[in-house]
Design a protein that fits this description.
With 135 residues, the protein is α+β, with helices and mostly antiparallel strands. It is built from 2 helices and 6 strands; from the N terminus they run H-E-E-H-E-E-E-E. A hairpin with a 4-residue loop joins strand 4 and strand 5.
Length: 135
């Protein structure tokens, strides 16, 4: 019985440490100073806000094309911005879906066919993509 209690206590401790570790600042928000001596806090996102990766552009166009059945060449990226999503579901969890509770760097992308607009959330490279809103 004592061994079972010790095992349960260890499981509880590991679970607590995992939860605590996921709530701390991501390692990517700390960089070394030019002298490589002291860690320096940075506020820069991991993804440059100036340019949307082509993998994200292609993924958004393909997803919209599959959704409404038109050619990807007709679709235009109207607006995009770098975002930090609260979880692996990009803040858009479906009912009864488990989402890893970790910050995810990604994009919010608005695409249009000229008359209708769709809004997507993606991770940094477009492999994870979710429809936020549609007409």
């Amino acid at each position: 019985m004592q061994a079972i209690k010790e095992l349960c206590w260890c499981c509880y401790l590991v679970a607590w440490l995992c939860f605590w570790g996921c709530t701390q600042r991501p390692i990517s928000s700390i960089s070394l100073s030019p002298q490589l001596t002291n860690p320096v806090e940075t506020s820069k996102p991991m993804i440059p806000q100036s340019k949307l990766p082509t993998t994200v552009i292609d993924a958004v166009r393909q997803k919209t094309s599959n959704l409404i059945g038109i050619e990807t060449s007709i679709l235009e990226i109207k607006v995009y911005e770098a975002k930090t999503w609260p979880d692996s579901c990009l803040g858009l969890a479906r009912p009864d879906e488990f989402c890893t509770q970790a910050l995810v760097e990604g994009w919010r992308v608005v695409v249009t066919n000229g008359s209708k607009t769709w809004v997507y959330r993606t991770n940094g490279d477009g492999r994870e993509i979710r429809l936020e809103s549609q007409p």
